[in-house]
């Protein structure tokens, strides 16, 4: 009736001076409960060198590596699996005529999961892919890095430019999350929607909270000569963090997915937002938010091409304008 999963970083056995964190003996203890539930006890014991962490995120170190976050992610993943395996679907969960079968629903959820993983990988730095500061000297620097995409059926080929910025905003995380995930408010920050009307074509619940869902959005361009654009979006939230992640998708490819086709060959280049509490809650209040905005944009379809300064300037301007629009909208809400 009990199970344990415990692990430890190999760096504890073979010390590496370049590693800034080591996971000492940590893990979870799972107990079977009479009502069919599981009781999970989680213990994290992590050694972290936080000297290289930006002041904006210093207070988040224990939060990021803590046991509460592991439990929250476990709970979120269990909800996701329950949604994937669900056989009884509410008639109001998706629009009639969009998702016509269970296979299509599963394919769309699988595609959304890959999109989230791709987003996280795209904004994660490493020794091979490091961030370069573009502008400014304060907390709100835009940072960029490039990656070459070659022979990856799930990503368009060429040079991908990733740009990200993090900043504080005096609005509770839930309000920021609800604002960014609402397709009716998308025009307030999404420059690429170009003034078009955004309509939700399909909605798949992905958890108990109404904010946990996968949506297929259609941008009806104000210019009738332009073809309509589809956007796949996943929004997810838990007490430790919230995410709104999206990617433009090809209409033909999505029709295949919605009919149960293989989603692994749909090329995705996801962008999105990570929303964290800023740790400034006072007297039981909600406090503000730390918002990270991250874009991934294909700047050249030839992987061997050189990155142009014009491409960097365009992406820098795009992310700066998006940030200003979000701040302006949030300021109107709090006024």
Automatic annotation (TrEMBL):
The keyword Transcription regulation applies. InterPro entries: HD-Zip_IV (IPR042160), HD-Zip_IV_C (IPR057993), START_lipid-bd_dom (IPR002913). The keyword Plastid does not apply. Residues 1-83 form the START domain. Keywords: DNA-binding, Homeobox, Nucleus, Transcription, Transcription regulation. It comes from the Eukaryota. Signal peptide: none annotated. Pfam families: PDF2_C, START. PANTHER family: HOMEOBOX-LEUCINE ZIPPER PROTEIN HDG2-RELATED (PTHR45654:SF93), HOMEOBOX-LEUCINE ZIPPER PROTEIN MERISTEM L1 (PTHR45654). This is START domain-containing protein. It comes from Brassica napus.
